[in-house]
Every structure is written in C-alpha cells, then in structure tokens.
Amino acid sequence: MSEAGQSRDETTTALADAVQAGMPQTLADLADLVRIPSVSWSAFDPQHVQRSADAVAALLRGLEVFDAVDVAWAPIGETGVGQPAVIARRRARGGAPTVLLYAHHDVQPPGKDEDWQTPPFEPTVRGDRLYARGAADDKAGVMTHVAAIRALTETIGRDLRLGLAVFIEGEEEFGSRSFGSFLAEHKDAMAADAIVVADSDNWSVDVPSLTVGLRGNVTFRLTVSTLGHASHSGMYGGGVPDAMLPLVKLLATLHDDDGSVAVDGMATHQADVPEFPESRLREDAAVLDGVSLIGRGPVLSRLWNQPTVTVTGVDAPSVANASNTLLPAVSVRISARVAPGQRARDAFDALERHLRRHVPFGARVEIDDIALGEPFLVDTGGWAAVEAKTAMREAWGAEPVEAGIGGSIPFIADLVREFPDAQILVTGVEDPDTRAHSPNESLHLGVFRRAILTEALLLSRLNARGR
What we know:
Blueprint: H1 8-34, H2 46-62, E1 68-72, E2 75-76, E3 80-81, E4 85-90, E5 98-104, E6 124-126, E7 129-131, H3 139-156, E8 163-169, H4 179-185, H5 187-190, E9 194-201, E10 209-214, E11 216-225, E12 231-232, H6 233-236, H7 244-252, H8 278-284, H9 299-304, E13 308-315, E14 325-326, E15 329-338, H10 344-358, E16 364-373, E17 376-377, H11 383-396, E18 401-405, H12 411-418, E19 423-430, E20 442-444, H13 445-464
Parallel strand pairs: 5-8, 5-9, 9-19, 10-18
Antiparallel strand pairs: 1-4, 2-3, 4-8, 6-7, 7-20, 10-17, 11-15, 11-16, 12-14, 13-15
Helix pairs in contact: 1-3, 1-13, 3-13, 4-12, 11-13
C-alpha cells in the first residue's frame, strides 16, 4: 500500500513490522561487512577497505531506489589519494526534501587479539549484544541506512518523492583526510536539505539521544628550548635551566587548582544539561580510588560545554635511557577541546597567547604541527530536528535526550561549509557499553533495531512533506 493510503499510525506500525521482519537479513548483511577488516590506517592492507566499499555499494544497488551508486576516491593534497568511499543519489520530486545519509565503512585497528574475548573480525552474539570491531562503529551505521530504506520501500513502495543521497566514507578513522576534496568534487550529488550523520551514541539502551553539540579540537606540538646543546647536569645544574623545568612550570599554568582550564579567551558554552552522577563518571572512566575528579559545575557541562587542555604525548629521553644531562629542548603534544559556539582558531590564538606570556626563564617557545576542528551546535527548533525527535519517540517509546559529546567530529565543519543551509542531525547506534575503539566493541541489538526504525520513520515523515 502507498503511504498516501495509510494513516500515520498505520504507517508507523507497518514500518515497525518491516524492520522487525528484516532483522535476520540486516544482521546477516552486517556480519558480512564486519568480517572485512577494513582498517584505513596506512600500515594496513588497503585492499580490505576496497572490498568493504564494494560490499557497501552492492548493498545500496540492491535497494533498487538510486539513480546511481558509485565507488569514488578524492585527492589528499597534490599527490595523495584517499580511501574509497561510496556515493549514491536519487533525485527528489514533488517538492519533497533531499536527505543525505552519512556513515563510514572503515574501522579502527583491532589492537591485541588477546584483549578480545572473541576474534575481533568474527561477529559473535552474546546475550543481547553483537561483538566485533566495527559492529557498532560504524558498520551498524551503514546498515541503519540500508535497512531503513529497505523497510521504507517494502512498506510504501519505491516510488518515493523523497530525494536520497548516501555518502559512506572510507577513512573517518584515519582523519577524513580527503573529506573536503570529496565534498568539493561531488557537491551536486550530495547537496541536501537535511544530513543524517549516523556515527554517535544514545543516552542508554532504552533512551535515545539526538546529539546537539560537539566540542571542537585544537592540537599542536609545543617545544620549549633553553640550551644550544645538552650539558652536564652536575656541572651546570642549579645555575642553568634545563628545558624540562620551564616546560613543567608552563604546563602547570594551563589549569586552576581544581583542574579547570585557566586560559583567558577559551570560552564555555552556557546550556542546561541532564543530571549525571559523579559516581557514574568515575565508573565509566575507571578513575582509581582516591583520585579526585577535576573541573567545576555539573558533570555533563564539564564534558560537553567546557574547554579542556590535555598533554597527550612527550618527546623526552625515556627513564631507561636517561643520562645526567640538562635537556636542551623538550616537546609535548597538546590536545584541547573547544566549547560549542567558539571558533577553533580563536581557541588556538588564546592558547598561543597564554603559552608565550607565561613561559618562565625567557625560554624559547615554538608551536607547530597545528590542526583545528570546529565545534558544532544543532538548531533544535529546525524542522529536521523536530521530525527526528518525533521519530525517536515513536520508535523508542521514550523521550529523546538532547545530548552533547565531549569529543569532536571535525568533518561536520566541512559539511557546514559546503552545505550551509542544510540541517545536520547527528544520530547513532552506540550506547554507554559499546566500547567503540576499544577491545570487545559491541552493538546492542535492541538499540540497533530501534535506530533503524527511527530512521525509517524519519524518512517516511520527510517523504510525506512532498505532498
């Protein structure tokens, strides 16, 4: 039956039945994708990523709704080429909007096999969870799109008014290095009124989330130098500053005594957040007994809306190789998170001013290898967000949480730049126990089904806007 001949409740019920009936095939397709070790990092075999792209393209062609489905590549700089991505397009008609569906088919490296309870690329069901690398992040995102379209067409037919574009990236886990070039080269094929990014999480296995805020990121290498060469620590120590001394003192100025960022010019986003107990944060982050938490304000404000500054690496002699010398120079990697609403460049400028003003003993400061990623805020009153939250309520039977994410998805800034008028919805299939990027990554099968139904309902509602 066409959607025009059904009530909204009848369509919802029919879509729910189609999603449920299709779960065996959906899980089989997901398992086939997961068995392909499509790690996009340079040290791994790129043929696996190619196989994965071809498999995704075959799934999209099998839906028989797209005008074209292609595997494509885009350049990185002047000489490099990115990993294969999949792009599909179906033109809208009858005044209906066009929706771009994004996910990525590459995965993180598995790590050590001994850290996994079952082989990382052999999907294994234990209880209500499917375990494997990529089972959730983000091959379940790929299959959410495939299964939602499949359920939609089985329910209302393939004669959709809704325009559909699909972009399944092949190198998100390796920095989306060709993402900007890909958007520029395929802008017409990917132009959309709304963009669904299926690469986030949910509040719990029973309560969905719409991600409405992402922190941006700033990373760079900081080098502090005091000497032209290493000198004997016994002969010159006490009169000559080694590089480690001003570096340690300088890094200590980045935070207040409670661990809050103390850099003038790094902003905080003001927004209400749900209650979240400190005990849960301690448990989720495996904080050792006796170690206090840092920061001030509500827990989720600290994680979603406030800036951070972290030292993530140090270039210095190891303890085993340490000699009795004054170090002439020391480098560290700084990783900062930028609150939603602030430009990443402004946050970097604030950090650079702070470091240059506070370096002690006249030590030299060099900052290089800079990377910036913009934060993101969703217009929760936009029509796409309203439709998405309605679909979540219908699919989950629970009120969705408008959630932030402490991490960053820098490529969203590229989407905003290329498609400034599109509304961006960040959804996903993960939950607090997914352990994406970690050993024993898993997908909750109930969350997966409800995520598919949510997207099918959303597409159905947007298809109806073309009447």
